[in-house]
Amino acid sequence: MTRYWTDLARRLTPYVPGEQRGGANIVKLNTNENPYPPSPAVLNAIREVSGDTLRRYPDPDATALRESIAEYHGVQTEQVFVGNGSDEILAMAFMAFFTGDKPLQYPDISYSFYPVYCDLLNITSATVPLDEQYRLNLDSFTTDGGGIVFPNPNAPTAVDVELSAIQKLLSVARDQVVLVDEAYADFGATSAVELIDQHPNLLVSRTFSKGRSMAGMRLGVAIGDSNLISALKCVKDSFNSYPVDAIAQAAGIASLSDDDYYQHTIQQIIYTRTETVKLLEARNWKVLPSSANFVFASPADDNASAVFKYLSGEGILVRYWDRERLRKWLRISIGTDDEMSQFFAALDRFNAPK
Ligand SMILES: Cc1ncc(COP(=O)(O)O)c(C=O)c1O
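That is the input. Now the predicted structure with pyridoxal-5'-phosphate docked in place:
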């Protein structure tokens, strides 16, 4: 029943998040969550938040958190913006930079929230095809469009692009904002943050959800020229002055204070990823080179849909899209070694002679 809905609400096709099935025996490899908990420092900081802190509104500008992020990345506090997850930051950036007359450009295989925001915000868009190997060639973007957004590494392919290619794009696409979505950059891609001082058209979005194990907290970051950050603040203060609550602000600061912990868990995930790729290739799967905490892989028998259904029945959740160029592939998040063993045991049961 859409009787009271506006035309806008009626025509939306919302983003579909990965299934959040819970339960003791579920192995969740479908939403690229980190299999390890956040640092104990984060949990302590959350416990220490006082009633007095909660009674009050949080700092609308999250200044202390932005200072910590700026110090961590070697940038100025004015070059940092925070939001309720990087999804929210993407939405605000789309509002601030991409609602002009010319189309926003993004890869044809990419984060499926981009077209959803375009729909919501009435933004025209144009897609740029990945090549046969599912690589993104940044030369394919036109230099006079209405903006560019791409994830690095890309999702769901996990393939990254080199910093030199991004640098070249930024120089030739001077009149557009180039938004590099670095949700997964902690796992191997080179961050473009080091380019922000030379390129006033570069905005980098990052998140505490993946490398920092805080998807449940909802904390995202944008880093860019202070002029771009001011535009994001204008949008935020026209929508919700307090997107990052006091608990998330405290947890974010604590997370950055314990980097050794995260370097350790990230290295563990990279190690497990390497082992996972070897084991898939030993079963003749095709696996794209991954710089993320997931792999994009295609079963030898081209039966991704059947594998997906079987695994789901066994309580092993991975991601599958019944879409052109994607339907032969599965996106598998990297879990703990034990979770990956369960994944391979189920896969081998599926492949065992019946
Ligand atoms: C490419 C990409 N960007 C952004 C996000 C959003 O992350 P979050 O809102 O948790 O920061 C995701 C989440 O999976 C993602 O895959």
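The domain at 7-38+260-351 is CATH 3.90.1150.10 (Aspartate Aminotransferase, domain 1).
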